Records
---
Amino acid sequence: MTLQAIIREADCIGCAKCLDVCPTDAIIGAPKFLHQVLADDCIGCERCVPVCPVDCIDLIPMPDAVDPEKITHEKRLERKAHFGFLAKRRKERLLKQKQQAKQRFANMRDQMKDLL
Ligand code: SF4
Ligand code: SF4
């Protein structure tokens, strides 16, 4: 049985720790706000479960319509392409964030030089 994550919204404290570990960016939300899982984007990898400090992420059986064990070959290929796209998009996002952080650091360093 393939599983899918869901967040018990009433218990979520919005710490955003689950966002960092999700390989498909299936969790949406911002710091201090409750988070939700996009059902179509979750692969049930369970990485988000142990990082949640309040244990508010549950794993439930995936609906038959998207369960890779129950769908047609064509649908499986379609989902594989979808998750490939999500993984690529996440990789690009992380790279962009890294470059932005690097740029911010360089700007700060330049400002410090000007002050000295
Ligand atoms: S189970 Fe995996 S894919 Fe699904 S929300 Fe958690 S980390 Fe993301
Ligand atoms: S790790 Fe848990 S408490 Fe923190 S944002 Fe995610 S679901 Fe909410």
---
Amino acid sequence: MKIITTHKGTDFDALSSLVAAHLLYPEAKPVLPNTINPNVKAFLSIHKDLFDFYSPKDITLDHVTTLIVVDTHSWDRLENMQVLQERDDLEVIIFDHHLKGDMQSDQKTISETGAAISILIQEIKNKNIFITPIQATLFLIGLYEDTGNMTFPSTLSVDAYTAGYLLEKNADLNIVSTFLRQAYGKKQKDVLFEMIQKAKRTEISGFSVSIAKMDIEGQVQNLSMVVQMYREIVNVDAAFGIFFDKERNKCMIIGRSRIDEINVGLLMRNIGGGGGHPGAGSALLKGVNPDIVEEMLLELLSGNQHTSVMLSDLMSYPVVTVREDTTIEEVAMILRDMGCSGMPVVDSEDHVVGIISRRDFKKIRKSKQMQSPVKAFMSQNPVTIEHDKNAIEAAKLMIKHDIGRIPVMKDNKLIGIITRSDAMMYFYDLLPH
Ligand SMILES: [Mn+2]
């Protein structure tokens, strides 16, 4: 007899991999451990009839000739299978994305993908095995759960290709999100309720902000999701959770913001964290008092100048400009010497009247046009931006108008230029800090 099984505390990745392995080995019996995660239980309670699982106690281990394991290859993570360890004649087949494990095998496919299901789907795809929309949906839940919706750094391109393949097979995203939300368990619920009870709501520079400070014991997964839910429930522009772990003397600060003006990633860097992006960020600080952290946050939020990078910090200046009557030939030379692809065109009063870029040169047909004034070929009425706007607004304009550079204005005067690469420096956290 052949059996397939997976780890105890079965999560969606494990369940998906079990079902997928059954497609590869239809003659094997799928054995589902009795200890499964609550959200998996909820899924099975609705889809029970579709799957025919065996319980470990239904299996006479003496009859097992082949053991197929998915999403683990450690004996102690299997339920009731330990006796099989002693068997020399047992064939073992492994599909896993964990590198560690003590099971020896005849045939193993182990690679460090974000989710184990990605490995199995590649096999299914190669063998052209049919999968139903319901199976595709389950597989996608497993994939999203183990990769944090493709956001965990462990996610590989093969995981993303797998998602594409499953969507092609009509995985239903409405069902996917219904079951993924339940990754919110009792621990998370307790934290959320305490946060709501302790919530303080303040107005800072016209925005609503809420900071919740509380003690936590041990590791609580998914706190960032809790803070996200908290922000939605208390309905503020930005929310922060300060979680203090007394035993380890560590403070975890997690922030979420829905507005451009409060840049959480930058704020977290200011208090000693790293990374993040404008809408979300976190910091783990050792040996700090949570009250001090709260004070720092409030100070930075009301200081404002530290919490938002203005264009004037990012832009390039002084700006090289050309007068509107400069010939195209001269402009071409200036651009070549400067090694840039475009520049603003100004009139005799230094007002920006256009932008000339390499793209405009394509309009030139005849060589005598090289002697024409630049104003004949420049793009007129260029998009400009005020100096007190931020990088996000500049990036939005670049995308909207498909342009790579925007003159930065102050009191109707050109004071700098922001380019796509300046904006990218900001988004990819490449600024010195
Ligand atoms: Mn897994």
